[in-house]
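During the no-cost extension, the postdoctoral fellow (Dr. R.K.) reprocessed legacy sequence entries with the updated structure-token encoder. One reprocessed record is reproduced below for audit purposes.
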Amino acid sequence: MPRHADRKQHTREYATRNGLTYQRAEAQLRARRADPEHDRVRRYVLSGEVAAILAGEGLRGVAQVEPADAWLARRTPRYECDVCHREGDARIEDTTLGLVMAAYDPDISPVTGMISSRRQHAACGGCWVHWAYNVEIPQGPTFLSLPAIAEPDLAAELSVEVHPILLPDGEGEQQPALMTTVQVTKDAGAGAAAWLSQLELMLREAGFGTLDDPGEAEGWSVRVVEHYPASYTAQWVAVRATPARDGVAPDHVYLGAWSPSWEWLAAVGRSRHILLIVGPVSVAGEVPDPPDPGNVEALWELDEEGALLAAQVPFELDDMSDRVPRPERPE
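Re-encoded structure tokens follow.
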């Protein structure tokens, strides 16, 4: 058999054995032939997905990625195979990598960092990648610190809850809205009314108006997550006061689990904006009781008193049912 045919057959066998495409297997073998010292240093067989991750492709919130060759060279060549648990040596045996990666989420995991890596003999298994999702979704109210404008060292604690509600739109339809109730749980001796008045000032400066004339709060948004993978909490909501950016989570007014009704989700549909209602704020130095979200009449009464603020904000319904975590290694 001609030499080039032997080489092609060897490349096919190498590709099949290590779960690579023919082109990637050919490139790796060509690199070894060009560098006789290569195998004495490392014999890592990388799948396309693993090689791309090590090169920083698709990673978010990561400022700089160490070159893959340098990262691999720093690792101790000897290892315990993650499959057969026998000793391996990347200098003399083809070795594959498994990566456990933090899956990106703009609200709770804005950086796609590597959590851990594992090694195995290439004969025991190919490369794999497992995307791990944060399972710590808060339950119950969100507690916020509200610094005093005139004295930043002085702060109140606010308890925030959210409630999905449906408001009649006057045309026989139901308008979905998100009611965000606020209570002062620690007033630092200043009284709850003073803090709620400051909250009102901040919300109006952000662009909030009234139920009859809602404003447009720049930077604010609402994201509802359905079918969140790898968590006991499949549904949660984030009310953001600042935009989401790679590497930096937004400032949340509320982030936590919730259970909206099917009617509310159906009414939201594919809406790009939602009415966000916040309150009650203080009225003439008094603090109204938080409204019953199911009592629409009470909401309108509070609005007439000036105790509620509202804004139309960008809305995202994120169905993550297609992003279930993959198994940690191929079967």
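DSSP finds eight helices and 13 strands in the chain. The two ends are 36 Å apart (CA to CA). The remaining legacy entries will be reprocessed before the final report is submitted.
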